[in-house]
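User: Assemble these into one structure.

Assistant: Restating your components, then the assembled model:
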Amino acid sequence: MRLTRRDAIAVLAGLGVVGGGAVAVDQFDPPTAESGEMGETGDSGGDGSVSTTVTATMTAAAEVVYPSQTEGVSDFVETYVVGRARDESRRDAMRDAALELDDIARDWYGDDFADLSADDRDSLLRELGVAAADPVADGNVSERIRFHVVNELLYAFYASPTGGRLVGIENPIGHAGGTASYQRATMSKDDVERVGHVERVERAGDSEDVDGSVTDE
Amino acid sequence: MSNPAQTDRTPVEDADVCIVGAGPAGGIVAHRLAESGATVAVLEAGPRFDGDRQDQLEQHLRPGLDDPWDMGGPRDEFTSSGDSFYPLNAARVKGVGGSTLHWQGMVMRLHERDFELDSRHGVGADWPISYDDLRPFYAEAERELGVAGAMDNPYAPPREEPHPLPAFPPSHSDSIFAEACERLGIDMHSVPNARNSEPYDGRSPCVGYGTCKPVCPSGAKYTAESHIEKAESAGARVIDRARVRRLEHDSTGERVVAATYTTPDGETHRQTADQFVLGCGGVENVRLLLLSESGQYPDGLANSSGLVGRYFMDHLFAGMGGRLDRPTRQNHVGFNTSETHQFYDDAEPVNGLKLEFLNYAGPSPVIDALHADTWGDDLLAQLKANYGTHVAMGALVEQLPDEDNYVTIDPETTDDLGDPVPAVHWSIGDQTKAALERANEIQRTVLEELGADVEWAVGPDNTGPAFHHMGTTRMGDDPESSVVNAECRTHDLENLWIAGSSVFPTGGAMNPTLTIAALAVRLAQSVKQRVRN
C-alpha cells in the first residue's frame, strides 16, 4: 500500500491548507543547511518551511506508527509536515516536539531518533508513555509528543483516502470524498487495487476465495 | 473568529426593529425585515466564526483541542436540577448562526396531530394555529433553508409542492435495513435534510466530509450565517459579542423601549427600537425576560401568566445498535438518508415517535486511531476489527409539556458579568419512558430481523436530550395560560415578539428547526405590518 504526496495534499485540503506550496508538490523540497534556512536548532524561517531534522524525525516516527506494509512514507510525511507548517503556531509546536523527541533519543539511546532502528524507535515512544498519553498540545513531554507527533501522523494517515482504504473506507471522516461512496456496497475495484498487492497476498493464504475485496473481512 | 477591536458595537440609530439572537429565527426575521426597508439591529451574544471552517473540523476530530464553538466558560455558566442533568452547553452555540452552527440539519414538518394533541388525545396542549395555518410558511421555510427531500413519505402531512432540492439517495446501509423492514411491514422513506444535494443559494453541494454535526466545512449544510449575511446585504446591522442583559419598558409597561447590552470592552449600550424580537433560544429567551424584572413586572417581563420558563421540553433519544456479518459501509457521511414516521401518529403511546436508520453506526477509523493506545500493525488490526459491520437505529421521542420542567434563573450563581445564570430543572416522566421503551422494542425487532448481534441500547434508563429547547414561552390565545399569542407577540407587551421553539406548546418528535423557520417567516410578516404602521 503506497502513500503519495497526493494523499497528503488531500488531507491538508481537508484541514484548509490549500493554495501556494501546499498544493504545488515541487515546492515541498525541504530547505537544507546549505540553503541557509536552518537555524541553530534545525528550525526554519517564517516562510512555512521546516528543517530536514524535523521532517526526518517525523518520517522516522511515521515508519513506526504506520502499518508496516506502508510504502512512500517519506514523501507523504514531508508533504504533510511542510503543509502543516504553514500555520506558524502549529509549525513551532511540531518542531519543538520533534526536536525534544530527538534529544531524548540521544540521551536514552545514544543516537538521533531517525537513526535508531525501528524497534528502538517504537520502544522509545512506548517507554516515554506516548502510547498511553492523552494528546495535549501544551502538556507534559509525553502528551506533547502524542499530540504533535503521533496523532499528527495518525490523522494524516487515517484521514487520507489511502489510509482509509486499508481499513475499508475510501472516504474517511475529514476527507471530502464526495457522496457516492456511502451508496456503494463495496469499495470500487480501483479502490481495492490501491490498497495494494500486500493485502491480497496476505489473503491468498486463506482458504476462502476473497477475490481481492477488502470489505469481506 | 471576530476581533473585538475591529467592530463598531455602538447601537444602531433610529432602529425600527431590534432582534436579540442571530440564529435561524433571528436571521430569517432580520433578513425579511431588512429587505422590506426596515432599519434592523441584531444583537448576538457570541462571536462571528468567520475563519476557516476547517479549524472547527480539526477541533472536532482531534482529541485535546477545545470545543469547536467555544461553548462553556464563565459566559455560559448554568445550573441543572431535577432528576436528569441537562448538559446545556453541549446543546447550543452562541455565535452568528446560533445552534445551526453545530446542528445535524434534519428538517421535517410537524404532523397535523401535533397542533391539536389536547383535542385529539386529551394530553399536552393545542396550538392556537393549525397545520393548515402554518403549511404555506413551511413551504417558504423549506426554500429559505434549502431542504433536500422527496415526496416519498406516506406518513408526512399534506404538502403542495416538492422540496426545493432532490433528496440524497439512500445509503447502502439503508438497503440492508430495507430487507428487514419489508419483511416486517415497516415503510422506510427519505429524510428531509437542510443540506445541499446540489448547489443552492450560493452554497456548495455536500462533498462528504462526514462531520455534519458539529461542523460542515463545505458550507453544504444550512447555517443561519447565510440569513445573517443576506440581512446585512439588505442593510441590517449585526453586532456580535453584544450580550443583552435587560429589556427596559416604558412607564406604561406596555412597550419595550430598549435592550441594554455589554460589549467585550466592558461598555454597556442601549439599543432602542420600535419593535423587539427575541430569538435567543428556549433557555436564554427565558433568562432575558426574567432578568428584565421591574417594579411593574417583579416576576419578569411578559410573565403575567407566571409561565415564562415553564413547560420546558426536549426530545429524548432512543437508540440501539449491533453488528452484522457483512459490510455496512458506515461513516462515509454524517447525515441520515432514511427513516420511518410510521409510528409517529400512534395513540399508544401517544407521544410522537420517529425512527432513524443511522449512516454513522460504530466508530470511525480516524477517530478511533487518535484515541488508541497503540500504533503500527497492532492499531491497523484493531481498526479493522472495529470498523465495517456496525448497524444502528436512532429515534426521537416526544416529551409532553409538564409545568414542573422549567427554566429559570439561579440568583446564587452569576456569570462573568454578574448576572444570574440560567437554571434548568428537568425530569423525564413515566409516560416518556414508556414511549422510549416502545422505540427500543421496534428497534430490537428490526435489528433481530436483520440477524444483528445487538451490542448496545439507549432507552428509558440511559436516555439523553436531543438538544431541542422548546416550550418555555408557550403560544396560546389565553394570556393566563400562555406567554405569546398566535402571532408570537407577548400578551403583556405590544411590541415584544418571540421567535423560536420556546413558543411551541407541544414539541412533537420532529427536529424543530423547520418549524422555527416557518414561524419566523410568519412572524416577520406580522412585524413588518407593525413597522409599516
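DSSP finds eleven helices and 19 strands in chain B.
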